[in-house]
Amino acid sequence: MKRQHVLNCNFSVWYPKFKNITIRSRVIPLSKEFVDYLKADNVVLPGDPVRATNTCDEIESDSEEWLALGEDPSQETIIAPEFNEVDSGIKESITDLEGFVFPKLNWCSPLDAAWISFDGTLKCQSPNDIYLLLKSSDKISKILFDTFEHCEDGQGCMTEGFELVLRKWKDINPGMEFRCFVKEDQLIAISQRDVASCYGFIAQNEQDICEDISGFYKNKLLKKFADSTFTFDVYRCAPQKVLLIDFNPFGRQTDPLLFTWDELNDTTQFSCGVANSDDNDEDDGKFHGVFKYVTNAGGVQPNPAHVNRIPTDIVDLASGNDVNKLVDFLNVRNLIRKPLEESDDD
């Protein structure tokens, strides 16, 4: 995967060409000041002053000076800058898109921050709804700080060209979302998008789902996208009705869901998908690749977005990623246990 493959999946690059087969959207260019605001650590919504607590050391060292001024030494006021142009663009877009939108940056949405919204979704109706999601998302931070992760011709971040994408809100059945993998113009694999659930109706309609998606690819996307190798997400609204959701690069930057990238890069695993020749009269247009979906409750996988609802210390302890935290935890447990053992001896 190269940088250009990532750039070709930039929303504003592909949307004008495919806007008739995807969700209606608006794009708002972001200034460097706004991007810097998104990169900053604190979560302060524009225009809202926040009382932030200082550390104990700061309080002790400056307490006399603060008290002399009649101020609370434990707090300071942080005021976020105003972004009038972005605010106006968001409000105008929300009105144009019938009152509710879901946000994303050039390549990804803040799905991992959905838990922080009042209804647990990305449904937004005001600028502050959007700012809160963007500021709370690790996925957004990753795009801002490491745009070209896993690119063989150079990693790093994009310095300009970030955009806020607002898409018209649409209630979607997650069981009908699928990620599709195209290699050298062949649709080689399809994966259920929501790997944290088992939907019985997928098995019942497996052939129809595959035929609808492969037909959509052949008629709407084949040789029309900038690359011959890429991934795309679709929503099957109804039988024979498929809606394009997004494009992503074919590489480790994209979640392979029920597949692995080793599988997808192994040419022996996928002999054929949808034929890549427009002149092949023998091509029946059917899907001959691999379709993976959760067949029973035992195959359900953890939802990666739910990890963000758990304190990072707990995640690190459970996964063993941070040995020092495990040592600290054991030390604390020993300190708690020691007085109990001494009291038992008495």
Structure notes:
It is a single chain. With 346 residues, the protein is α+β, with helices and mostly antiparallel strands. It is built from 12 helices and 10 strands. The strands form 3 sheets. Strands 9-8-6-7-10 form a 5-stranded mixed β-sheet. The longest helix has 23 residues, at 323-345. The protein starts with a helix and ends with a helix. The model has no long low-confidence stretch (mean pLDDT 83).
Give a short summary of the structure:
This protein is α+β, with helices and mostly antiparallel strands. 36% of the residues lie in helices and 16% in strands. The protein has twelve helices and ten strands.
**What percent of residues adopt helix (DSSP H or I)?**
25-40%
Largest sheet: 5 strands, mixed
Helical stretch tally: 12
Low-confidence segments, given as residue ranges, are none
* Pattern of helices and strands: HHEHEHEHEHHEEEHHEEHEHH
Strands, count: 10
Strand content: 15-25%
Q: Give the overall silhouette.
A: globular
Keywords: Cell cycle, Cell division
Pfam families: D123 (PF07065)
Protein name: Cell division cycle protein 123-like protein
GO biological process, one term: cell division
